[in-house]
Write a structure and sequence with these properties.
Blueprint: E1 4-5, E2 9-10, E3 13-14, E4 21-25, E5 32-37, H1 41-56, H2 65-81, H3 83-94, H4 98-119, E6 125-127, E7 134-142, E8 145-149, H5 155-160, H6 163-169, E9 172-176, H7 183-195, E10 202-204, H8 209-218, E11 224-228, H9 231-242, E12 247-251, E13 257-260, H10 266-278, E14 290-294, H11 295-310, H12 330-345, E15 349-352, E16 356-357, E17 364-365, E18 368-371, H13 378-381, E19 388-394, H14 397-405, E20 409-410, E21 412-416, H15 420-429, E22 434-437, E23 452-453, E24 456-457, H16 462-467, E25 470-478
Parallel strand pairs: 1-5, 8-9, 8-11, 9-10, 11-12, 13-14, 13-21, 14-19, 18-19, 21-22
Antiparallel strand pairs: 2-3, 4-5, 6-7, 7-25, 12-24, 15-18, 16-17, 20-23
Helix pairs in contact: 1-8, 2-4, 2-6, 2-7, 3-4, 4-6, 10-11
Bound molecules: NADPH dihydro-nicotinamide-adenine-dinucleotide phosphate.
Amino acid sequence: MSARQYTHFIDGRFDASADAHVERKAPATGEIVARFASGQIGDMDRAVAAARAAFDKGPWPSMSGMERAEILNKYADLVRANFDRLVRIEVEEVGKPIRFARGDISGVVGLIRYAASLALQMAGTTYTNLGAGKTAMIMREPVGVVGLITPWNFPALILSQKVPFALAAGCTVVVKPSEFTSGSALELAALATEAGVPAGVFNVVTGKGSVVGQHLTEHPGIDFISFTGSTQVGQTVIEASARNVVKTSMELGGKAANIVFADADLDAAVDGALMGVFFNNGECCVSGSRLFVETSIADEFIKRVAQRSAQLKVGNPFDEDTDIGAMIDEKHFNKVLEFVRSGVDEGATLLTGGAAAKSGSGHFVEATIFDHVAPSMTIFKEEIFGPVLSVTRFDTVDEVIELANSSIYGLSNYVWSKNIDTVLTVTKRLKSGWVQANTIIDGAPQLPLSGVKGSGFGYEMGQAGFEEFTQLKTLFIHTGPRQPVFAR
Ligand code: NDP
């Protein structure tokens, strides 16, 4: 199989050639599967100039919502028509199990269709109750040229939590995908263009975050930066964008609590505990990586979770029955194993896993579970971003709320209980943008995702996510005779 060769996608087409490349080795096999252009500052300047011209000179922002919706729906059709190819790219470049990659690309189609529906609904407000001769219109307009920076764990899906919404609002975009997993971003830009998105509206520059990503965040031609990635890089992006006083939206790290009360449907909660930490190899910002179990059911419940974990299949992500694929690269694989060692060294009880999994030449980690994890331990506090679960027991609602909220993060949390009173009481006290009850890592394009505390700010998806790509302009009009103020 030959590696896919890519160049930047700027102003409606792929560049003819690239001076330097970033090679992507499939994390599951070590084989080179793609070569991306290693972008330089001049490449980013060209992309921002194309996006700026497409926004300032149109026609995209001035098209009717109906026209933009039609093009976005064609784009969704083309993604559907290229489904298998996009799935393959995600499996090869990320190392995620194929059944989850299929879910990602289906999700992309849904996100584009939902965003298309929002293009029809972009509306402001009119006030006619301000007094005689006074009318005010609050107009909703596209925010302008948007710089989008995305991570490697859900390359197509996270891009699509942003780009279709930006396009629906009439914005133009420059995307800097992760240097590991840029294939789907480039393919999606080409498909959108084929669907009728005009040249310059959807640009993708690949390469290193410290070079092209940094330049994008400092660029005076950008009106809004929408970033998804680690809290550490998010802080750098906020600092860089502050120089031009540019609005930002930050979807950052997480360390969710997955809280199981004794009155829960325990079969569902066992599956929820596994899904919470092993979905997408555990490389998931909304992972339920801290499992809290009510003491009265803890021994039996944890035994069931550990038994099932030991049976999970780790290995070739193209196998239909694989549960956990490869870690994104060797560095991350070593970091995950380092966290596992810290769990052992700091006194947690290793129930299952805890080592590299043997499968070909890739970087695989066994499904790993630690019991009796104390709040002072590193694995309790830090985002591991791998298949490693920490389990802590609790006796009261107050105790588990304090433990859950002790994290520096506040992206998502989960509650399992059949008692609606418990679900609502706990939900109201959890400090996170997202809470799910009796389900986990579920969602729909209509539902906004947002973080609090170290998990960031701003919304993605839903009406609120769409509005991030808009701004308001207030027009105050006076009609008829106006009472003079100075010229009396
Ligand atoms: P990083 O923060 O390392 O990278 C994210 C993106 O930022 C990449 O495209 C990266 O490029 C780029 N980047 C790196 N340095 C800079 C810079 N100085 N200026 C501008 N851009 C830069 O995150 P990962 O890709 O490792 O993703 C994992 C992290 O993302 C986890 O913390 C996870 O929780 C978080 N995440 C959050 C989500 C949410 O919705 N809240 C969803 C998914 C992930 P390059 O790849 O070239 O370095």
